Amino acid sequence: MKKLFIVKHKYDFDKIINKKDRKKNDIFIIYSENNNLPYARYGISVGKKLGNAVYRNRKKRQIRSIIDNLEKDYIKKKDYIIILREKGKYLEYQELNHKLKSLLIERKDQK
To answer: Which of 23, 101, 16, 106 is nearest to 65 (CA)?
Structure first.
């Protein structure tokens, strides 16, 4: 994932989350907001309760990999904040992939 496609700043995270346009399941919460850019941007959050920095960064890398593989299924011109919940702590890559894909594809069908 290129740096251009990443939501980095706290004020961007807060703005997207405060819109309260969200979709969730037992593993992920996904907030979204329209942007005026020709591409989608993504922010990933894994809380400290899930583990140490090494573990959290590993989960973020897995989620980024899933996003790269499923990029064609996303709604363009949106910002997304993807939050991993505590139930996703021990899930393997394939299970995370399935859960995130089901949320994002549902979201695409709704719009």
So the answer is: 101
